[in-house]
Amino acid sequence: MKEFIAILGAGESGIGSAVLALMKGFNIFISDNGRVKPKYRELINKYNLPYEEGKHSFNKILNASEIIKSPGISEETEIMKLVRQKGIPVISDIEFAWRYTNARTICITGSNGKTTTALLLYHILKKAGLNVGVAGNVGTSFALEVAEKKTEYFVLELSGFQLDEMYKFKADIAILLNITPDHLDRYNHKFQNYIDSKFRITQNQGVNDVLIYCLDDEVIKKEIEKRNLTSQLIPFSISQKVENGGYVHKNEFNINLNNTPFNMSIQELALQGKHNQYNSLAAGIAAHWLKIRKDVIRQCLMDFKAVEHRLEKVLKVHGIEFINDSKATNVNSTWYALESMKHPVVWIVGGVDKGNDYSKLYDLVKSKVKAIVCLGTDNSEILKAFKEIDVPKVEVKTMTDAIKTSYYLAKNGDIVLLSPACASFDLFENYEDRGKQFKRAVRDL
Q: Which domains does the chain have, with CATH numbers?
């Protein structure tokens, strides 16, 4: 009798896992409490996958020998409580797919910068001619890639939710960009739980594996001192020189591994701003470690196109520049966005507050922001945090109103910045939907 695997969630990770499981001879069933999107329905039809939508058939799911869970499904749902009570093993799609590939894995996590770093590194490795895929929290499902292609290298962006359900998986190269409070609502509002989740990227690593990490991040630095890591540690910094790793000093971008130096001017980097210096260092070190030619690394660091919804310049309307940073779903991400602004800002902020501490933004808002447009169903925490700052504050409930209001509040030479510092699920499907609506509304002005 075939082993039965239940798959919770019929999105990117769930459908990919179902295809791979079917190919590997498992008996499968996909269950999604919501509606299945058309593009995933196409794959369901193509592979004739058994599924249900709009409900969970508890009796069927609870008979599984293993469950592959979409990272978006909360432990607080009724089905997950029942699964945990019964003690059925729960894994992520990443853990499942890894069982069936011999590809080398370069894995990236952190609170911010994951997608940019993953896509930049993928760009370098692709240009270098490697047989490489990009998957995980970006691109296509890791499991679908493993099912349909023979790939030798994978760049994987990993969220904490994916790492939480990974046990035997090992990253050949792990990149830890930063750790700042985020998603604390999913971690019992304990920062240490969130830190532990991110550090799962180092699990099972040995002496031949590598951890590339940010030396300027105090949380990461302290945790590394506490933990008994056996992998090779390679730091990067923009505030101090590093002997074996990467750093920025006097506007020069430097990587030095095993006495093999690489350098270029930070002015030449395609991605500007301090946060992007970190992202470029992390990707550059990983590429250098994989012995990619220096001229390829340099060229790719110079010609990489920025990620959609990440400080994306949309349009100038009557001298007012509109910038889409919808991907900034936490305070730290918004801090970097505001820090990089060179002109007065009308700031669009708000959404689902994940236990945010807005006090870190106070000085930047005071010095750079001329008006605040709150776009969310509940803006009380934001209004409370910035009540002492004497600028106009307007509450709106639609993106169209947010853009119109911002346009009237701004003048020639100003910037309208969507950098919400919050999740999007109160008014939008996800951050991509929020960003697309922003761009549409700007074009409709």
A: 4-91 (3.40.50.720), 95-303 (3.40.1190.10), 312-443 (3.90.190.20)
